[in-house]
Task: inverse folding
């Protein structure tokens, strides 16, 4: 992802374009700012902020009459500032608050409500100071999410399950442990969907969750998510394999998940190569790599192919 092309997009935020074009520009800026598993793309984040996007997006949140543009602008701000201290300081200078965004969470328009939840979730992701500021901005009631958690639309279910897990500790109306457990169970069920787009969504969300709070990977292991993610590495759909591989890689930082993967790799000697081929920019535990190398050294399992070391950080 190259940062050089972002300035024309940032300038379009101030232009007189149709709402459809404006929403496409905002969505593109958000997508350029974060990668799989909520990993920030710092080069792009820095370039987008340098072009003045934060000020323009805050103006849209506060000024536009289009509620969908408001929540998408807020989501773009969350992406641009994710794990980027300098951009977070720039946002503070704009006196951005969460009150309006929390109000939009209760919109009767489902797309707006889900969009507000997505923005709040991204702001809150792995950032306790922001979570405290969200609490100051207004009340986030668990009841508001039930309509999406119980939806017949699996995409709505997948998005809302991720949202309640991340926002559980700033919610009112239900015990946060129970809320997180419900969200995790829903994501596990969605991994088993026959729809490949839903499998990809659930695996992406699990990849993001696998490097948040320490107890979440253990909970995912306990419901059986690791086994299903390993099965999805053999999916005919490339994006499903990529999402599953990213999730599996992050899950290996949990000891229980790592043991499940080691056992699976012993049973299927080609599994490690499949994981490596689909991992892309994801991370995998150094401890897992060492233990797998040891298994190969002592001859477990039978070596059906040449070991290729993984590039990991």
Result:
């Amino acid at each position: 992802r190259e940062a050089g092309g972002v300035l024309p997009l940032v300038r379009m935020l101030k232009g007189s374009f149709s709402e459809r074009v404006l929403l496409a520009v905002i969505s593109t800026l958000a997508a350029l700012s974060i990668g799989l598993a909520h990993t920030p793309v710092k080069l792009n984040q820095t370039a987008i902020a340098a072009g003045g996007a934060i000020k323009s997006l805050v103006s849209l949140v506060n000024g536009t009459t289009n509620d969908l543009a408001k929540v998408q602008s807020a989501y773009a701000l969350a992406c641009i500032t994710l794990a980027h201290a300098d951009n977070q300081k720039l946002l503070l200078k704009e006196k951005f608050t969460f009150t309006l965004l929390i109000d939009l969470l209760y919109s009767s328009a489902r797309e707006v409500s889900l969009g507000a939840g997505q923005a709040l979730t991204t702001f809150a992701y792995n950032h306790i100071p922001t979570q405290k500021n969200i609490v100051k901005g207004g009340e986030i009631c668990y009841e508001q999410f039930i309509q999406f958690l119980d939806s017949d639309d699996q995409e709505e279910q997948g998005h809302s399950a991720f949202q309640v897990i991340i926002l559980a500790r700033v919610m009112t109306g239900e015990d946060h442990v129970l809320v997180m457990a419900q969200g995790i169970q829903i994501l596990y069920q969605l991994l088993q969907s026959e729809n490949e787009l839903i499998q990809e969504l659930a695996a992406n969300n699990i990849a993001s969750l696998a490097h948040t709070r320490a107890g979440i990977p253990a909970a995912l292991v306990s419901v059986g998510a690791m086994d299903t993610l390993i099965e999805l590495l053999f999916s005919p759909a490339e994006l499903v394999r990529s999402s599953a591989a990213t999730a599996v890689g992050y899950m290996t930082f949990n000891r229980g998940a790592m043991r499940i993967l080691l056992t699976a790799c012993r049973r299927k000697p080609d599994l490690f190569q499949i994981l490596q081929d689909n991992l892309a920019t994801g991370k995998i535990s150094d401890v897992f790599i060492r233990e797998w190398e040891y298994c190969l050294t002592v001859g477990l399992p039978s070596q059906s192919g040449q070991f290729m070391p993984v590039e990991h950080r």
Notes: Confidence is low (pLDDT under 50) at residues 302-313. The longest helix spans residues 176-191. The radius of gyration is 20 Å.
